[in-house]
Design brief:
The longest helix is centred in the first third of the chain and has 7 residues. This protein has one domain: Distorted Sandwich (Beta-galactosidase, Chain A, domain 5). The chain is mainly β. It contains one helix and 27 strands. Belongs to the aldose epimerase family. Pathway: Carbohydrate metabolism; hexose metabolism. One of its GO terms (molecular function) is aldose 1-epimerase activity. Its EC number is 5.1.3.3.
């Protein structure tokens, strides 16, 4: 993949002056850039560290959680706004097989399981700015063969675009030279209101089934009908139910990836009247209600991010899919091209 030079503030990259600045240095002294995008009433700040949406605003209202300095992202961020990968979510015991070949990935969750691509997954790498304009940026990354235990060299791009109709559009495109896993996911924490938590937010997920998980959040292998359970979000309902249920599960939309995005979830905040629709090509969507969130440092405007300060809706393949034949799978062959389109539409 041809590398283009990363821009300084005001560099002409694609017809117009593009706002690019140095955001800070990581502990290893690598420089992280920030690109500011504008589209409709939306403004987004994108970091080259982790291909991260640092801040997303509708007018002057923050829609996502985040931090003001790089060190907090490096030391304290629970993948806040980042691109999780190679394989988002969990792989049990860090083990999987492709054909007759078995692979052992790094285990970075509780010393037992593989989460979000491992210690040096996509969220912890510096991506390269390939193109930038007032409303769009294209970032690229090369993940070498053997990184975190994954086979094959993967080349991936992430394009963020803000449209005139207040949509954040994300396009992941990738290829590999060996059979591997590729399942990136966007990991913003959303809060559309003025409260410290999202318990009063309303949500709809048009899924007829979900994946139950163990105490360690590993799928049990069952695919369970949502009817009559706390996981039935087919009609708009409040995030917090009478049983105070906690949610960190994959909702099964289909068994395959689509060519064009379809409606995957809706979130509505009654007081601000902001609605967010999630459209995606992906076969599943992970709904995490942020119930374990507890960052040790304040975020935007000095806010403390405690339990349920924000919620995540992460379109992706089903978690731990390489270990379950009946799950929508994340395997990518050298003859295939990976393409995911996910849109967060604000209405």
């Amino acid at each position: 993949m041809k590398r283009r030079p990363e821009g300084e503030a005001g560099l002409q990259l694609k017809g117009k002056a593009v706002a690019i600045r140095d955001f800070g240095e990581l502990e290893n002294r690598e420089t992280v850039k920030e690109v500011t995008l504008h589209g409709g009433d939306l403004t987004a700040s994108i970091l080259t560290y982790g291909a991260t949406v640092r801040r997303l605003q509708l007018g002057d209202r923050d829609l996502t959680l985040g931090f003001d300095n790089l060190r907090d992202y490096e030391l304290h961020s629970p993948h806040m706004g980042a691109t999780a990968g190679r394989c988002a979510n969990r792989i049990a015991n860090g083990c999987f097989s492709i054909g007759n070949d078995e692979f052992q990935l790094s285990v970075n969750e509780g010393g037992r399981h593989h989460l979000h691509g491992g210690h040096t997954g996509f969220a912890h790498r510096i991506w390269t700015i390939e193109e930038a304009s007032e409303d769009s940026v294209l970032l690229s990354l090369v993940s070498p063969d053997g990184e975190e235990g994954y086979p094959g060299t993967v080349q991936i791009t992430c394009r963020y675009t803000l449209t005139k109709d207040n949509t954040l559009r994300i396009e992941f495109s990738g290829s590999t030279d060996k059979p591997t896993l590729l399942n990136p996911a966007h990991h913003s924490y959303f809060n559309l209101g003025d409260h410290e938590d999202v318990t009063k937010h309303q949500i709809m997920i048009p899924a007829r089934s979900y994946l139950p998980v163990s105490d360690e959040l590993i799928p049990t292998g069952e695919i369970v009908d949502v009817a009559g359970t706390a996981y039935d979000f087919r009609e708009m309902r409040q995030v917090q139910d009478e049983q105070d249920s906690r949610f960190d599960n994959n909702f099964c939309l289909r068994q395959f990836r689509l060519e064009k995005p379809e409606l995957s979830a809706v979130v509505f905040e009654p007081e601000t009247q902001i609605k967010m629709e999630v459209w995606s090509t992906e076969p599943g969507i992970q709904f995490y209600d942020g119930s374990s969130l507890n960052t040790p440092v304040p975020g935007f405007n000095g806010k403390n991010y405690g339990p349920r300060a924000g919620l995540c809706l992460e379109p992706q393949c089903w978690p731990d899919s390489p270990n379950h034949e009946e799950f929508a799978c994340s395997t990518l062959q050298p003859t295939e091209h990976y393409l995911q389109i996910t849109e967060y539409r604000f209405i």
